[in-house]
Amino acid sequence: MFLYPPFLFVAVLTFAGQADDPFITLRYARNILNGDGVVFNPGQHVQGFTSFTHLGIAVAALSLSTSHALLLLKLSSLLFAALAVTEGARLVEGLGLHRWLIRVGLVAIGGCWIIGYAASNGLETSIAMWLIAFIARRLTIRGPTEGVWLVAVAGFLVVFTRPESVLLMAAMALGGVVAYRSTKTVRACLWFVGPVLGAIGSAALSLILFGSLVPNTFAAKDASLSHGIYHGIGYILVPFAPPWLAFAVMMTLGVLAGFGLWTAIRTERRYLILVAVVLAQVVFILHSAGDWMHGGRFLAPAIVPTIALGVIGINTIDHTQDRSSRPSRRRAVQWITSAALITTSLLPAIVAGDPVWKIHGLGNGQLLAAGGYRFSSLWVTLPTRFDCLAAGTTVASTEIGYLGFERPDLRILDMRGLTDTTIARTAPQTDKFNGGVVDNGWWRGYDPVGKALLAAHPDVIASIKIAPRRMVLYHEYRLVRKERFGDAKIAFYARVGTPPPQCIS
Questions:
Q1: Cβ burial 81-115 (10 Å sphere, 16+ → b, else e)
Q2: 283 in helix, strand or coil?
Q3: pLDDT of residue 320
Q4: Are 136 and 231 members of one domain?
Q5: Are 384 and 439 found together in one domain?
Q6: Is 145 inside a domain boundary?
Q7: Quick check: is 130 in a domain?
Q8: Which residues are registered as beta bridge partners of 494?
Q9: Are 250 and 167 contained in the same domain?
Q10: What residues are paired with 461 via a beta bridge?
Q11: Count of CB atoms within 10 A of residue 332's CB?
Q12: 212 and 128 in one domain?
């Protein structure tokens, strides 16, 4: 009663939120099913997706339905998010707190807006969130020596799902060594064999299939440290709009979790495992500059431990009150702190504006159109602008997700470098952001994106980064059309000396 109704409530309020990134993985899945291999373009071996686990789910979804593949991915995300909140509930219940405080924790976890968005994005986020919550619960409540191999398997799976999760696993192992000092270090860290094997397996598979140890997406988003820290701090403190409300919400959660941290340091060392998860994810966010999608996706892996620390913090505040305090005063503090924690979970989902009733149809395009992003209309409409292009035509674009999935017969050059090794590896860090390479001067022709375009010689270029002049890339391409889709603009360029395709002229 205190867990699943809030979860369903928030899922309803966030289920329409949808970016086009799942369609990149779905294009890989389609090529696998077509017998072309694990490729974005046939013959081009580059890992433009992050998660092998998610790729497997995408293959299964596409096998069941092509027109409703995104819906199946969203439903799988919802399932794993439900498992994550279940693990969060078990974690809170295992802390040995008062029943009223356990109920507060259940509502806060079930009604968490970050979990709600993870339940709807059709990506691997909720899988990682569930597995991390499971491992954190087992290590915190049962210790590192009970059910070692089950925890190790979960650790293997989470690193195989998100390679950077090995950082969280290492932090949890270190936290376990400090928390359970009476246990020999080898026994306390035995479960960590799973994450290590997961990292080796993921890297080996990437090396065999793509010739790289990590996904190409990591290289395309490898921004400078200063950029990562600056935008990462903003990502943590202001993960949604309006900024003043987001800052108030995140600071409130941070203060409550801070009291939980105090308890972990002073009395309950086992809580250091939860602290380790949160700190490790913060380090990752500060390195990666966060994520560009709605819903705090990079906050999700650590959100269950964070809320658990918030619950512990409320318990700490309650116990630090003078025993001679009036019962009415103590109850008031309990009500205020409990309401604050629940508000940090529920309020963002209420103001977000991505409820399920925005969706008008369950097809791929219909779900994407309701996504609530600036580029939603552009993503959905862009494939129709290329109806006249013949199979085998090369198109370069900054928006390749839904376009690449809807037109598997086209050869796509990704100007953001997510599925292009040359751009990802050669672009300077100043051009790399949390959404990939952003080259504001591609039309000049002498930077990595411009060179890649001249080398590939695409038939059409479609870019949201519009050149300030009509003739671009050493006058080899010319502007043929600018178009607005909702709040987004895009420009189409064709080769000089050949008639432009009728569908974009």
A1: bbbbbbbbbebbbebebeeebbbbbbbbbbbbbbb
A2: helix
A3: 84
A4: yes
A5: yes
A6: yes
A7: yes
A8: 460, 478
A9: yes
A10: 396, 493
A11: 12
A12: yes
Q: Give 1's contacts (C-beta < 8 A, 6+ positions apart).
A: none
Q: What percent of the chain is modeled with pLDDT above 70?
A: 99
Tell me which of 292, 324, 356 is where a domain ends.
Answer: 356
Q: Which helix (H) or strand (E) holds 58?
A: helix 52-64
pLDDT, position 387: 94
Does residue 147 sit in the same domain as residue 90? yes
**One domain for residues 114 and 186:** yes
CB 482 within 8 A of CB 466: yes
Q: In the predicted model, is pLDDT for residue 299 greater than 90?
A: yes
Please say if the pLDDT value at position 145 is more than 70.
Answer: yes
319 burial class (0-12, 13-18, 19+ CB within 10 angstroms)? exposed
Q: Count other Cβ atoms within 10 Å, centred on residue 39.
A: 20
Q: Tell me the sheet residues that pair with 432.
A: 437
- How many domains are contained in the chain? 2
- Mean pLDDT value across residues 50-65: 97
Domain boundary among 295, 330, 356: 356
Q: Is the pLDDT of residue 330 over 90?
A: no
247 and 391 inside one domain = no
481 in a structural domain: yes
| 134, 86 contact by CB (below 8 A) | no
Strand partners, 44: 41
Q: What angle do CA 427, 428, 432 make, to 5 degrees?
A: 80
Q: Tell me the pLDDT tens digit for each residue of 58-71.
A: 999 999 999 999 99
- What is the crossing angle of helices 303-320 and 272-288, to 10°? 130
More confident position, 458 or 188: 458
Asked whether 293 and 21 are in contact (CB, 8 A), the reply is: yes
Chain mean position to CA 296: 7
Same domain? For 156 and 292 the reply is yes
- Its pTM stands at 0.96
Q: Which residue range is the domain that position 174 belongs to? A: 4-356
Q: Is the pLDDT of residue 322 over 70?
A: no
